[in-house]
Design a protein that fits this description.
This protein is of the alpha/beta class. Belongs to the glycosyl hydrolase 13 family.
């Protein structure tokens, strides 16, 4: 009952005393019935399962045609050690923004289910349930993307809203006769959008959008809209989804005179979502997608009552910077408590090297941005948002150098948090120019993020995995071993992080070696990582008597020193 009390309190804080009371009571009665029907058992025992997860992020269609094809490849993922699939947008959409422009929150696109256009809801539910059951049977949980800040302008809600100022749905969106409101809100897609306001001839007003003009923002000041969006999450929870990646979280609440990001109202909305899901069954992951400084992102954890997890965006570019300059400083800086504050014990950071978007350079200084950009952009087409991002896959960024690829994964798997593998990266998939050109022709947007998407050629993959000399084979088997070792060492998933200052051959601290200890209870692990293309040495005392590398690599010693080969590493 505690979760229900939270919902009532949050409702009052969002809308004020007495506003929409009957509306809320009716919703809570419905939630009671849902819980009794679908979640009357003991519930999940491992409610913090996401801490031990290894997440695989993929599109339902680009991976292997549709979810039926993905089901056929679940053994591939299970063999790799994946225990959570993050499905990139699968809901109904005109696909003008890769599915983040949702036209029906209650339905999955027919083509992703191997069904013809116009398939019945019952048939779609049957196929999707089969996929969920197949994943769960292998111990793989399923989460998916849901854009909660906006929808497609083709959504029936918006179509109804634009027809008349008297429409019941009119207030589900944000309208204005001028573009003077929310002037402090930045334009997110610089170079592709000129304004956050778009004139709608049918409505006779401007509507507000933080992303593309095809994606009108939802108005969470409207109580009916909030409950409608909560019901969306509830319905998918009933259908077996284990969690939600809440896209574009920072922008939910708008306030005049602010930049409309990370506002108190936004946190109240997210807490309301969490309370509703907790009431049904604790452990339903709410994952915040917030490309913001950690000091702002940690607010989305609340007091263990908001998001369970959030992406740590600033780490990703610092890993690339560290490997480009061969120094550990930038990684130690970004993980320092002054930059990344402590988070509640039940919460977790999610870490990644690449994702479906660009390698974002928003969360670095101008000097760092220039350095990383020059170090990694090999083609002008890789530019995204006028220098604020790089559209390239992992293998492209490291020019197919298996040593640097392995080292980058070593850092991600051992540094802190839950690791994410982006589809295709497990066998070194490259940029897909043909797919970018195909989507550009369809949408008219020169969105270079489509370079890092594209379809998988499974015949080619099988050939690579069968050839020990291929880059794909080497990456795949490296990851398979790392995932297995990480799963056997709770310290990597749940432990505290302490950086080590280790002397080299000359006695001075070797800034070229990133070293740290992970500790969880009585379990400890030490990680040594050479960030350069040259041999490096550090004091052997750092290993505290450990003689074996957990990955099975030989530890080379030279007197009282450990010798690390170029881009080499040890987990001990």
């Amino acid at each position: 009952m505690e979760a229900k009390a939270r919902m009532k309190r949050l409702w009052r804080e969002i809308f004020g005393e007495g506003v929409g009371r009957e509306l809320l009571e009716g919703f809570l009665e419905q939630l009671d019935r849902t819980k009794e029907t679908h979640f009357s058992g003991e519930g999940q025992k491992d409610t913090d399962w996401y801490k031990d997860a290894v997440v695989y992020s993929t599109y339902g269609d680009l991976f292997n045609k549709d979810l039926l094809g993905l089901s056929d490849k679940l053994d591939h993922l299970q063999e790799l050690g994946i225990n959570c699939i993050w499905l990139l947008p699968v809901l109904e959409s005109p696909m003008k923004d890769a599915g983040f422009d949702i036209s029906d929150f209650s339905s999955i696109r027919s083509e992703l289910l191997g069904l013809p256009e116009g398939a019945s809801p019952e048939e779609k539910d049957r196929v999707f349930a089969g996929f969920i059951q197949a994943a769960h049977a292998r111990g793989i949980r399923v989460i998916f993307d849901i854009a909660i800040n906006h929808c497609s302008m083709e959504h029936p809600w918006f179509q109804e809203a634009r027809r008349s100022k008297d429409s019941p749905k009119r207030d589900w969106f944000i309208w204005s006769d001028t573009t003077d409101r929310y002037k402090e809100a930045r334009i997110i897609f610089k170079g592709m959008c000129k304004s956050n306001w778009e004139w709608d001839e049918t409505a006779g007003q401007y509507y507000f959008h933080r992303f593309f003009e095809i994606q009108p923002d939802l108005n969470y000041r409207n109580p009916e809209l909030l409950l409608a969006m909560v019901q969306v999450l509830v319905d998918w929870k009933v259908r077996g989804i284990d969690g939600f990646r809440a896209d574009a979280v920072p922008y939910l609440w708008k306030e005049e005179g602010t930049n409309c990001e990370n506002l108190p109202g936004t946190h109240l909305i997210v807490k309301f979502f969490r309370a509703a899901l907790d009431f049904l069954e604790e452990g339903t992951l709410v994952l915040a997608e917030a490309c913001q400084p950690p000091v702002d992102v940690v607010e989305y954890f609340g007091e263990n009552d908001e998001c369970h997890a959030a992406y740590h965006f600033p780490v990703m570019p610092r890993i690339y910077k560290a490997l480009a300059e061969g120094r550990k400083d930038s990684i130690e800086m970004v993980m320092d408590p002054s930059f990344t504050p402590p988070i509640p014990g039940d919460c977790q950071w999610f870490m990644f090297l690449r994702c479906h978007d660009e390698l974002t350079l928003e969360m670095v200084t101008p000097e760092e941005r220039e350095f990383i950009y020059k170090a990694y952009v090999k083609d002008p087409l890789w530019d995204f948002r006028q220098g604020e991002g790089i559209s390239a896959r992992l293998a492209e960024l490291f020019e197919g150098d298996i040593r640097r690829i392995r080292l980058a994964y070593s850092i991600m798997f051992t540094l802190l948090g839950t690791p994410i593998i982006y589809y295709g990266d497990e066998f070194g998939k490259g940029n897909d120019l043909a797919y970018y050109q195909e989507v550009y022709a369809q949408t008219g947007y020169p969105d270079t993020r489509y370079l890092v998407r594209g379809r998988i050629d499974w015949d080619q993959v099988e050939a690579q995995l069968g050839d020990p000399a291929s880059l794909g084979h080497q990456i795949y088997h490296t990851l398979k071993r790392m995932v297995a070792v990480r799963g056997s060492q709770k310290a990597f998933a749940r432990g505290d992080l302490r950086f080590l200052e280790l002397g080299g051959a000359d006695g001075a601290v070797n800034s070229h070696v990133l070293a740290y200890e992970r500790a969880y209870g009585k379990e400890q692990a030490v990680v040594l990582q050479n960030l350069t293309g040259e041999e490096q040495t550090v004091e052997a005392k750092a290993l505290d008597g450990r003689e074996k590398d957990l990955l099975g690599q030989e530890i080379r010693r030279q007197g009282g020193l450990v010798v690390l080969p170029p881009y080499g590493f040890h987990w001990c």
